[in-house]
Write a sequence for this structure.
């Protein structure tokens, strides 16, 4: 029987598993950092820029663990749904009685990631998702046209926390009947002065999809490129020492 390829060989780029991959915002950043990327998402994602498995992300991860195929990978990124605890749900939506019952997959995702024995990242937006905020990134740190705060829990490795950069102004759009100008666009929803699709693409640094729903869910590739480069640098330092 053919044995799984050891992706840690020096002549190969390390292989990364991108769970709940959506349209590939995180994936593109990791690829730029030096990974080969394979995704997994429940929805059909024709715009995903790399190979991916369509199916339930946790079932797929469990399968990879059971078959030991997970040993092909060097790193796992996961962006599990947690709409019931994101800032919009627990804030505006809850106050207005909007929304319904949402799923929280953070804990079961973490449980499976721990079983892989691999270093990993769990990504979540601001809110009450129960993750360690080992790292928080903001668009202003990378000179982007969105603020888009995202928190990251790191499993099995560490990273230096960059200082938060003060915002240059407001997010452009309507607030309580008044229109505000600003250097950032609102990368969520429709109406209320929300940006056009081309504006979203430019603000996020994403060019390979023009689907608004995919753009509003994506993290900027600059975030995951920063994380990926830090991880690879930490492993290089470990080998050197």
């Amino acid at each position: 029987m053919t044995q799984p390829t050891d992706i840690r060989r020096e002549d190969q780029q390390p292989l990364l598993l991108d769970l709940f991959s959506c349209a590939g915002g995180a994936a593109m950043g990791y690829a730029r950092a030096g990974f080969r990327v394979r995704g997994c998402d429940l929805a059909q994602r024709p715009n995903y820029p790399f190979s991916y498995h369509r199916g339930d992300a946790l079932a797929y991860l469990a399968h990879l663990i059971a078959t030991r195929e997970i040993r092909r990978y060097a790193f796992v990124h996961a962006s599990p749904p947690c709409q019931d605890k994101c800032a919009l749900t627990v804030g505006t939506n809850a106050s207005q009685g909007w929304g319904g019952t949402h799923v929280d997959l953070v804990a079961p995702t973490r449980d499976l990631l721990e079983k892989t024995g691999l270093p990993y990242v769990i990504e979540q937006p601001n809110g009450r998702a129960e993750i360690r905020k080992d790292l928080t990134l903001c668009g202003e740190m990378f000179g982007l046209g969105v603020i888009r705060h995202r928190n990251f829990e790191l499993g099995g490795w560490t990273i230096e926390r960059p200082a938060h950069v003060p915002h240059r102004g407001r997010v452009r759009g309507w607030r309580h009947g008044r229109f505000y100008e600003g250097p950032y666009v609102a990368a969520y929803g429709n109406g209320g002065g929300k940006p056009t699709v081309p504006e979203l693409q430019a603000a996020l640094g994403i060019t390979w999809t023009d689907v608004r729903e995919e753009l509003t869910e994506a993290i900027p590739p600059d975030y995951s490129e920063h994380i990926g480069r830090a991880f690879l640098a930490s492993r290089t330092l470990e080998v050197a020492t």
User: Anything to note?
Assistant: Strands lie at 15-19, 36-41, 52-54, 75-78, 120-125, 135-137, 150-155, 173-175, 178-180. Residues 1-11, 86-100 have pLDDT under 50 and may be disordered. The CA atoms of residues 150 and 172 lie 19 Å apart. Helices lie at 25-33, 57-66, 87-96, 106-116, 197-204, 212-217, 221-240.
